[in-house]
Amino acid sequence: MPAAADLKELEAVNLALELLKGENPDYYKKFQELFKKYRMIGYKNICKLLLEESTPKKLKGVE
């Protein structure tokens, strides 16, 4: 299934990721490992936690 995002947006994100990787490859690798390890909880949930838009309790509806 193709991505819903526009090709230009995808290319812009890819370039930003390449630049970030070039700036700090060690931290980039750690983020890759984190995303791979917790892939099953969903990228949206990981992003909400990363951006401090939510907490684990809020995501579960416990709070």
Written overview of the protein:
With 63 residues, the protein is mainly alpha-helical. The chain has 4 helices and no strands. The longest helix has 17 residues, at 7-23. The radius of gyration is 14 Å and the shape is globular. The model has no long low-confidence stretch (mean pLDDT 95).
Q: Determine the strand fraction and express it as a percent band.
A: under 5%
Averaged pLDDT: 95
How many beta-strand elements? 0
Task: Report on the biggest sheet.
Answer: none
One letter per element, helices H and strands E, the order comes to HHHH
The structural class is: mainly alpha
Could you list some keywords that capture this structure?
mainly alpha; 68% helix
Give a brief rundown of this model.
It contains four helices and no strands.
Q: How do the strands and helices of this protein lay out in sequence?
A:
Elements: H1 7-23, H2 25-37, H3 43-50, H4 56-60
Helix pairs in contact: 1-2
